[in-house]
Amino acid sequence: MAQRRIGLTGGIATGKSSAARLLEQRHGLPVLDADLYARQALEPGQPATEAVLERFGTGVVSSSGVVDRRALGAIVFSNPDQRRWLEQLVHPIVRQRFDQELMRLNAMPAVVLMIPLLFESGLEGLCSETWLVDCDESQQLQRLMARDQLSETDAQARMNAQWPLERKRPLADVLISNRADAAALNVQLAAALSP
Q1: How far, in Å, CA of 195 to CA of 189, rounded?
Q2: Which pLDDT tens digit goes with each residue over 48-81?
Q3: Superfamily name and number for 4-193
Q4: Which is deepest, 5, 59, 99, 112, by most CB within 10 Å?
């Protein structure tokens, strides 16, 4: 039987990480996290880190020598050309990690691939099905401002860097509403997992 590969996506601050945690902890599925792989690509000493430092300078490095994701985000979320450059640098590294992990986990009946930019990056081909964690855009904005301590303007800029949820909804095989609490979210995940 072919492996079930669930592409888990959504907008920023819609609850992808919450859904992934539930799928991992309550349903026992391994979760491959594109954001984690992107962070690892920018760890000290990595080739991508050196390229970022060369392009943006020491202003994007924290006192401990780590890429300051907040400082880098301030640049790339306000400049589409810089964001595209960073994506072209990091996305191939993330794709390679997915390929490695999928090979390692090839005996598992199901795997979750958490990819925030699944549709934007054209990575649907990695998945046997796509799930969109969905909420109202006003909820998304409020969650993002609270989670990342951002102004409304900065939060909106980060949301605008991704496709809007209304563009993603028709592309997804399954819509998972995250407009309520974790219990309601888990009920929907369990239903989506049922054959």
Answers
A1: 12
A2: 999 999 999 989 988 887 899 989 999 998 999 9
A3: P-loop containing nucleotide triphosphate hydrolases (3.40.50.300)
A4: 112
